[in-house]
C-alpha cells in the first residue's frame, strides 16, 4: 500500500512537458550553435589548391594498356615533384592557420596525460635485469640494465666486474644520443652476448633501411672497429660470447646469406660464409634458442620453410651436424647435412 502511494505521488509530481516549449528550446540551442559556428567559421586561403601536372604515360600489363598521368611522380628526386610537395605543404599550413592555437592546446593536453617516464617490464637474464625506458622529454628509448642477483653464486661470479654496483642502472645504448648526432636513428635489433660483455646491434642513420652492424664493449663503452658489416638483418651469439652469427641482405634487401665472425679477432672485416640462399623466393633468418644451446638458420618462403640447427658452443659452423627440416604444403622432408 505504501509503495503504491509513493508511486502515485511520484507520478503526480512529474512535470508536464510542453512539446511546443521543448521544440522551441531545442531550436534556440541549435540556432545559438549555428551562429557560434558562423562567428568562428574559417576562411579559405587566398592561394588555390595545388594540382599536380598531368604527363601522359602508357602502362601495359596483363594484356591491357592504360594511361597513368601521374607516373612522373615515381621519381622522388624530380625537382618538379619536390616543388609540388612544397606547394602542398604551404597550402596545408595556410588552410590550418586559424587552428594553430587549438593544435598547441590539444598537443599540450595530450602530453600532460601521458606518463613522464615510460619503462618496459625488466627481463631477467642471469644476474642482470634488462629493460628499456623513455626518459622524460626524450623521443627515443634507452636500453638499460641493473645487477640484481637472485642467488649468492651469481654475485660471486661477477664481483670482480661490478665491484659493489649491485642495483645501479647501467645505460647500454641511448637512441637519443645517436639521433642528436646524426639527425635520425633506427635501431633494428640488439643482442647481448652470453657473458654480458658485448652488445651487438644494427643501426640505420639515414632512413634507407640499410642497417650497419656495430659491436659495443660494455666494459669500456667503446665500439669495436674490427667488425662493422653493412646490410645486416638478424643476429645470434654463440655460447663462447666471441662468435657472432649474422645475416646480410642483397641489393633488393633480401636476407640471403649467413656469416659468422670472431668479434675479438684483430682483423675481421669480413665474416666467414656459413650459408647462402640462392633461391630469390626465400629469405634467411637466424636465431638462438632460449636456452642458448642451439642456433637455428631459417630459410622461409610463402609456401615452405627450412630449419637448420647447430650447437652454439661449436665455433666452426662447418664442423657441426645440421638438420634441415623442409615443410611444404604436400609433404614433409627431413635432410641431414655435414
Automatic annotation (TrEMBL):
GO cellular component term of the entry, any: chloroplast
Source organism superkingdom: Eukaryota
Domain Peptidase S9A N-terminal residues, every copy: 59-306
GO molecular function: serine-type endopeptidase activity
Pfam family, one: Peptidase_S9_N
PANTHER family: PROLYL ENDOPEPTIDASE, PROTEASE FAMILY S9A OLIGOPEPTIDASE
Name of the protein this chain belongs to: Peptidase S9A N-terminal domain-containing protein
Source organism phylogeny: Eukaryota, Viridiplantae, Streptophyta, Embryophyta, Tracheophyta
Amino acid at each position: 500500500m505504501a509503495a503504491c502511494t509513493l508511486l502515485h505521488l511520484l507520478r503526480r509530481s512529474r512535470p508536464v512537458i510542453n512539446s511546443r516549449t521543448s521544440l522551441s528550446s531545442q531550436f534556440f540551442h541549435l540556432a545559438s550553435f549555428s551562429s557560434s559556428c558562423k562567428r568562428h567559421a574559417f576562411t579559405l586561403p587566398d592561394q588555390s589548391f595545388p594540382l599536380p601536372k598531368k604527363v601522359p604515360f602508357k602502362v601495359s600489363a596483363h594484356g591491357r594498356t592504360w594511361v597513368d598521368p601521374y607516373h612522373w611522380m615515381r621519381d622522388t628526386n624530380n625537382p618538379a615533384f619536390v616543388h609540388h610537395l612544397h606547394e602542398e605543404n604551404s597550402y596545408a599550413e595556410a588552410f590550418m592557420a586559424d587552428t594553430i592555437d587549438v593544435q598547441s592546446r590539444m598537443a599540450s593536453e595530450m602530453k600532460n596525460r601521458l606518463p613522464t617516464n615510460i619503462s618496459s617490464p625488466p627481463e631477467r637474464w642471469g644476474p642482470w635485469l634488462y629493460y628499456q625506458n623513455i626518459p622524460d622529454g626524450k623521443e627515443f628509448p634507452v636500453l638499460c640494465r641493473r645487477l640484481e642477483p637472485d642467488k649468492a653464486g651469481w654475485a660471486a661470479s661477477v664481483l670482480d666486474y661490478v665491484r659493489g654496483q649491485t642495483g645501479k642502472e647501467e645505460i647500454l645504448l641511448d637512441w637519443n644520443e645517436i639521433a642528436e648526432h646524426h639527425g635520425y636513428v633506427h635501431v633494428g635489433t640488439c643482442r647481448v652476448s652470453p657473458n654480458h660483455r658485448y652488445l651487438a646491434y644494427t643501426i640505420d642513420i639515414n632512413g634507407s633501411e640499410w642497417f650497419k652492424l656495430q659491436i659495443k664493449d660494455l666494459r669500456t663503452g667503446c665500439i669495436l672497429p674490427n667488425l662493422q658489416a653493412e646490410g645486416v638483418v638478424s643476429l645470434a651469439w654463440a655460447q663462447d660470447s666471441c662468435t657472432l652469427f649474422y645475416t646480410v641482405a642483397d641489393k633488393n634487401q633480401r636476407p640471403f646469406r649467413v656469416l659468422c665472425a670472431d668479434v675479438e679477432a684483430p682483423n675481421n672485416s669480413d665474416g666467414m660464409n656459413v650459408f647462402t640462399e640462392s633461391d630469390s623466393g626465400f629469405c634467411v633468418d637466424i636465431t638462438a634458442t632460449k636456452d642458448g644451446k642451439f642456433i637455428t638458420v631459417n630459410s622461409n618462403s610463402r609456401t615452405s620453410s627450412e630449419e637448420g640447427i647447430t650447437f652454439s658452443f661449436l665455433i666452426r659452423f662447418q664442423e657441426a651436424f645440421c638438420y634441415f627440416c623442409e615443410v611444404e604444403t604436400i609433404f614433409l622432408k627431413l635432410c641431414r647435412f655435414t
